[in-house]
Each structure stands twice: as structure tokens, then as C-alpha cells.
């Protein structure tokens, strides 16, 4: 009987913790944006998309163990400003027909301890999760700035993060245009808004 009581109590506590977490949804368009910068010897270029979807669950009063993240980026929508380069990048390097999305899943808050969100006050903290790209997944650690706002009474999370992606880590061949070969490391910046459900 004590074991049954213990498991019942554990289930109730887990349910209570889940109930305290709020869900925020990321939808395509608007302020949501992913930008990557590719550098080469002669020139650099950017690729960008606003086709981001996902959800963020967290307890604003106690982020430590409450954060769950699932964010997807439609790689087929990345635009570098040149149609031929887009087609080449999607078909030959990202292989978007086979691997259509980049995904960030889960999140462990690494610091600062006892981080919390208060309306109108940006907070920067370190997180780690699983980043999947081109059929390969690696743990990704980055810092993210988050601000909780409530314009017109509707709660929103504004978030921003930057991190490097090494093409070789994800089995992506380095694009070469004419005599110009791009650097292995790409700088990625993600900004967005998630609205409370």
C-alpha cells in the first residue's frame, strides 16, 4: 500500500508541475526569422526564412526544470536572394526533398540557477537540446535571450539566439560556386515570437 501511495503522490506532483507550465506557440511569418551567414574568401551571403513552427512550454516563475521546446524550420523555404543558388543549395547540399526540416527538441536550462521571467524584463540563460539537421542529430548548447510581454493582455515570449553550425558535423557537403568554396562553419541567428495558447 505505501508503494501505491508513493506512486500516486508522484503522479499528482508531476501533473501539478505540468499544470503550472504555460504553452506558447510559434507560427510561421511575422517577426519569426532564421538567418544564416555563409562566408567565403571573396564574398559572403545570407539565407533566410520566416517559416518557423513549434511550441515552448515553461513556468515563468521557475524555468529550471519546466522548459520544453520543439521548434521546426522549413529548409525548403530558405532564400539566399538568387533563385539558382537556392535550387543548388536545396537539392545538392541540404537535400530538402529528403530532409525538409531542421529541428530543435527539448531544452535543459543550464544556468543561471533559479532563472525566472517577469513581464518586460529580458533574461539570458544557457540551454541545451537536440538539434537535428540533414538526418544527423547533435546536442546543441547555446544561450537564448527571452522576454515575456503582454501587449493588449495577450502574453508573448520574444526569443533570440545565435549559434554556429559546422556543415561537416551534419554530413553536408560544402557548397562551391565557381572557384569560391564556402567556410565549413555557418553563423545562424534565430529570432521569434511565441504566443500564449
Q: What is the assembly state of the chains in this entry?
A: single chain
Q: Compute the number of structural domains.
A: 1
Classified by CATH, the class is: Mainly Beta
Q: What is the total tally of β strands?
A: 12
| CATH topology-level fold name | Lipocalin
Number of helices: 2
Write out the CATH superfamily name: Lipid/polyisoprenoid-binding, YceI-like
Describe the protein in words.
The protein is an alpha+beta fold and 197 residues long. It has a single domain, classed as Lipid/polyisoprenoid-binding, YceI-like (Lipocalin). The chain has two helices and twelve strands; from the N terminus they run H-E-E-E-E-E-H-E-E-E-E-E-E-E. The strands form two sheets. An eight-stranded antiparallel β-barrel has the order 1-4-5-6-7-8-9-12. The protein has a two-stranded antiparallel sheet with strand order 10-11. The model is unreliable at 3-19 (pLDDT under 50).
